[in-house]
Structures are given as structure tokens and as C-alpha cells.
């Protein structure tokens, strides 16, 4: 934990996730790719998830 100038504390996450090891959906993939959710982009994301699985998301995340 760290304290800021007003004395409030902020907690840092103890577990960081950087890839597809957690469940994700088409909207997550669309947003990770920098696109806005739309029917077309969501359909694109569904196809990518079906074809590539977690690798579809991992290519956009560190």
C-alpha cells in the first residue's frame, strides 16, 4: 500500500494478468485491439476467438 498527499491509501493488485489466462469475451477483444464495439467488430472478434482461442487476445496484451 502507499499513501498519497491527502493521507488516503491505495492498494495495488496482488495478481496481474496480461493475457488470455482468464475468461474473456468478444467485447474484451474488440477493446484490446483499439476498436469500438459495433456489430461488425464483435463478429470479427467472435471469429478470431473461435479460430485462435486465447492467442487472439494475447497478441494485443503485454
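Q: What amino acid sequence fits the structure above?
A:
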Amino acid at each position: 500500500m502507499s499513501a498519497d498527499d491527502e493521507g488516503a491509501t491505495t492498494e495495488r493488485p496482488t495478481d496481474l494478468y496480461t493475457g488470455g489466462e482468464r475468461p474473456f469475451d468478444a467485447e474484451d477483444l474488440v477493446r484490446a485491439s483499439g476498436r469500438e464495439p459495433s456489430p461488425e467488430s464483435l463478429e470479427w472478434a467472435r471469429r478470431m476467438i473461435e479460430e485462435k482461442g486465447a492467442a487472439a487476445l494475447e497478441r494485443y496484451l503485454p
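Q: And what stands out in the fold?
A: Residues 20-62 form one domain.
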